Write the structure tokens for this entry.
Amino acid sequence: MEFSDVIKYRNSVREYSDKAVEEDKITYILECARFAPSHMNKQSWRFIVIKNKQIIAQIAKTSLINRWLKTVPILIIACADPTLSATRNNIDYYIIDVSIALEHLILAATDVGLGTCWIGEFNEEEIKKRLEIPKRIRVIALTPLGYSPGTKGLVETITTTLLRSKKRKTLNEIVHYDHW
Ligand SMILES: Cc1cc2nc3c(=O)[nH]c(=O)nc-3n(C[C@H](O)[C@H](O)[C@H](O)COP(=O)(O)O)c2cc1C
């Protein structure tokens, strides 16, 4: 896909078909995450790829607003090791490292026709306990991965309407030149 098409077609997918995701596509998107930039090239990101339906359902249950995750074919947990990071100007770089890597993964998924959705609302403590994630590791975000069914169901219709998810601020609203 052309890069501009990848940017245009990426959107949050909250309903998935049962179609299995090919292993080579999973490897491709993880490879794209691996090549992300990171503070001092320390690559503080770690990913957990969950295919086990029972575990996915248990994790979905820990979120108030993302219960719809319970039927997704694959769930990816994006984690960070803060010991491979630094803080400058009160900004923790491990959050940035992982966010860039996850967006690489998400754009790569779009490129090969797969749906994703940034998930920021989850119960970190519960996820860490269930997945036996070491204490020092932080869970930064999740994303489901799979094929969109092609038509919008109830969850998708409600959320896209509520969030007006295709609407973006204009450049005039977000860009300053030479000073604020
Ligand atoms: C940091 C972050 C956290 C988000 N958390 C959630 C979430 O918990 N649940 C959800 O359904 N969508 C979540 N989203 C998706 C946004 O709602 C979505 O990106 C936005 O409405 C724009 O829609 P689009 O992705 O379809 O362009 C999150 C997005 C980001 C970047």
Notes: The beta strands are 45-50, 74-80, 87-88, 91-92, 115-116, 138-146. The chain has one domain: 3-174. The chain is about 40% helix and 15% strand. Residues 3-174 form a domain with the NADH Oxidase fold (CATH 3.40.109.10).
